[in-house]
Amino acid sequence: MRPETHALIVIDVQNDFCGGGALAVPDGSAVVAPINALMDEFPTIVLSQDWHPEDHRSFASQHEGKQPLELMEMHYGPQVLWPDHCVQGSRGAHFHPELRTDAAQMIVRKGFRPTIDSYSAFFENDRTTPTGLEGYLRARGVDRITLVGLALDFCVHYSAIDAAKLGFAVDVITDACRGIDLDGSLDAAHANMRDAGVQVL
Predict the structure, then answer these.
(1) How far apart (Å, rounded) are the C-alpha atoms in residues 144 and 165?
(2) Catalytic site includes residue 102
(3) Percentage of the chain surpassing pLDDT 70?
(4) Annotation says 12 is catalytic
(5) pTM for the full predicted model
(6) Angle separating helix axes 185-195 and 157-165, nearest 10 degrees
(7) What number is the average pLDDT over the span 90-114?
(8) Which of 67, 107, 87, 81 is nearest to 15 (CA)?
(9) Nearest-CA neighbor of 120 among 173, 89, 165?
(10) What domains can be seen in the chain, in order of their start residue?
(11) pLDDT, tens digit, for every residue of 151-201?
């Protein structure tokens, strides 16, 4: 068992990001078994969950003439437009049915504000609006986190960078992650995480 100060953060292992989902990450379902096995090693486990309203502004469907994966300028900067996914209460927003959700002490929902997306489990995409996860981890005495889940080059990557900036020691276990790789985003994520001092394992 890892020390009490070391937490496992499981990012967005939801139906819409797994096989057959609205925004399926290639081989996304393959992360479930290794993540479940890792849970036995950690005293503190947190799950993050994308939780979008139907009219979320990151959905391409909300912008006339726009297609999924196009880039659009929002009030907080450039935003990839996505297919409708992880709509609140939908099957796609539920965790993968084989994920051990019972092992987690906390679920942090993100992306629920209609006008701003949230890749990171720590901050929304304006990079300033917090989700509350940092406060929870501090209150639990956590100073090191291990990140796993979906997608490596977006929500895992952003969570890792933010955690490092906040002063946590951060590991990412790539065998328990899968990526989208949008225009080289996977290589860029690896480089950015290493530059931020994240241990990519």
Answers:
(1) 13
(2) no
(3) 100
(4) yes
(5) 0.97
(6) 20
(7) 98
(8) 87
(9) 165
(10) 6-53+85-200 (3.40.50.850)
(11) 999 999 999 999 999 999 999 999 999 999 989 999 999 999 999 999 999
The pair of three-digit structure tokens given for residue 34, joined into one six-digit string: 């290794």
Which residue, among 140, 170, 169, has the nearest Cα to 43 in the 3D structure?
Answer: 140
Cβ contact 132:138 at 8 Å:
no
Pair 8, 163: CB distance under 8 Å: no
Encoded amino acid at 125, one letter: N
Which amino acid, one-letter code, is at 181? Answer: D
From 12, 50, 84, 162, active-site residue: 12
Confidence of residue 134 (pLDDT cuts 50, 70, 90): very high
CB atoms within 10 A of CB 124: 20
Residue 179 CB partners (closer than 8 Å, separation 6+): 25, 26, 151, 152, 153, 154, 185, 186, 189
- Which of 50, 110, 171, 177 is catalytic? The answer is 110
Catalytic pick from 50, 155, 162, 171? 155
The 10s digit of each residue's pLDDT in 38-81 is 999 999 999 999 999 999 999 999 999 999 999 999 999 999 99
